[in-house]
Amino acid sequence: MAQKPSIPKGTRDFNPEQVAKRNYIFNTIRGAFETFGFQPIETPSFENSDTLMGKYGDEGDRLIFKILNSGDYLSKADNVAYETKDSLKLTSSISEKALRYDLTVPFARYVVQHQSEIEFPFKRYQIQPVWRADRPQKGRFREFYQCDADVVGSDSLWQEVEFIQLYDAVFTALKLECVTIKINNRKILSGIAEVIGAHDKLIDFTVALDKLDKIGEENVKEEMRSKGISEEGISKLQPLFSLSGSFESQIESLKSILSSSEEGTKGIEELAFINQAISELGLNTAALQLDVTLARGLNYYTGAIFEVAAPKSVQMGSIGGGGRYDDLTGIFGLQNVSGVGISFGLDRIYLVLEELNLFPETVTKNVEVLFINFGDEEALFSLNAIKALRENGIKAELYPDSAKMKKQMNHANKRLIPYVVLVGEEEMISNTFTLKNMSTGEQHKLNIEELISQIK
């Protein structure tokens, strides 16, 4: 007995309805990207291993899918590594390529490799799948799409302003109102760490601060103590734990907290500029919120940090994020190319739209009319009509076999096709078509012009 087929854990099949809904999100995001002047690029699904390895930290390197070399890959294996079962050294000798882990590092490689062809500032978008050898769980997959937009070659804060507008435009177009665009600045986090005497513990400090809404003030303080942050430093943080109110009032509070930090003050000035611009330009449905605990991607973000939260009525993690990085291309030898970028979380956006019933009914609209097949002569007559319908933008098809009427009607019902057309000898003589509404059962005899009009 043949073994039942399966797919690898962490991957998914998508049925026609799911693909239609995903394409609706893709097309909405792509349309906004292009409206804002971003140009599409694509990079290979796999890269040379040395392009990816060492760019994501030890944890990231562990999650990269390696591709075995072609042919007899063991013939060039490191014998010592093989005999001692040193997997790290062995892998480098039998695998020279790997599936991409994200779209950002391949983009940096693309910019460096094609720098003589690129007009800077370069605004690019990329919508492609990525792969991670992660432990599959709800909402976390080994194969998933990323939807990224980046600008490289400019350190202007107007780029950050435009990205906030871009988020607002996409979620407004998706009818997903009341999302919150959270913003922080790496310079502010560095400034706070400097003020409390923990500049050398920036990562430890921010990782703990980032947990404030999850574990509470006292547990955050305890974690900071465990990382060697002094009581005096923690006491200086007290105003942060109760920081609230409008964007402007939080900025004023931060000014007093960070008055002794040049870097922190610079971060405040950048956030104030962005907020002032957005206040004057306005947003359609999203809200901009300052969140000093936001610390995503601290290893490479150098300025603004973004994270988008779904409406409060939905229990969901972030549905987008990004930030400013000053030297991403430096990992490939091209120094001092500033950039800023954001990403949309497709799978989470899908789940939110599904939960709030925000997918338009037309998204999954399939064939609008099925022509019943009574034989070859009738089929040929029907195909001439189908051609005319398709030319008028109507989705139409002919049932391929002259099967029993009941079977063909059941096929239309199961596929939720709203109309069927019956063409027999009488219709062929009078050059008409009998249109049946599958919901009401009503039937009308129509000529081709009337048929097109009725279905439209």
Automatic annotation (TrEMBL):
It is an enzyme of class 6 (ligase). Keywords: Aminoacyl-tRNA synthetase, ATP-binding, Cytoplasm, Ligase, Nucleotide-binding, Protein biosynthesis. CDD domains: HisRS-like_core, HisRS_anticodon. It catalyses: tRNA(His) + L-histidine + ATP = L-histidyl-tRNA(His) + AMP + diphosphate + H(+). One of its GO terms (cellular component) is cytoplasm. One of its GO terms (biological process) is histidyl-tRNA aminoacylation. The keyword Nucleotide-binding applies. InterPro entries: aa-tRNA-synth_II, aa-tRNA-synth_II/BPL/LPL, Anticodon-bd, Anticodon-bd_dom_sf, His-tRNA-ligase, HisRS-like_core, HisRS/HisZ, HisRS_anticodon. It is found in: Cytoplasm. It comes from the Bacteria. L-histidine binds at residues 102-104, 132, 146, 150, 296, 300-301. Gene3D superfamilies: Anticodon-binding domain, Bira Bifunctional Protein, Domain 2. Its EC number is 6.1.1.21. The keyword Transcription does not apply. NCBIfam families: hisS (TIGR00442). Homodimer. Belongs to the class-II aminoacyl-tRNA synthetase family. This is Histidine--tRNA ligase. The lineage of its organism: Bacteria, Pseudomonadati, Bacteroidota, Flavobacteriia, Flavobacteriales. The gene is hisS.
